[in-house]
Amino acid sequence: MSSHDYSHDRFDPLYPAPPNPAGPDCANLMRLATLGAVVGASLAASRQLRQVQEGGQTPQRAVLETGKSAVAAGLATAAGGAIASSLTDQGLSRLGLLFLAGSAVLYGLSNWTEGRENPHA
Length: 121
What we know:
Blueprint: H1 26-53, H2 59-87, H3 92-117
Helix pairs in contact: 1-2, 2-3
InterPro entries: MamC
Region (Disordered): 1-20
Pfam family, one: MamC
């Protein structure tokens, strides 16, 4: 048995833990993904609702499209956050990297899904 007293081995603001060399942890990425999914779904739902009201979309298809947008936005935000966190700690450069990586993932996902929905296009 060790005689070490672990009660004081907690986070100390004067001596913060070193940054994680492996990058962002899963909990942070999940929070980012959830936030991205909520924002993406909100934007998609408002767009889909307008199309349903105008008669250009069925409610079932609107729900499906909103769900797809939520998943894509969540994935893009998590990927962007992981890339930004691994390259820079904070500030405008991190925000810029998050935006660029998220945009690239959304662009890739939209091109990939469009090709699958319209194989003859």
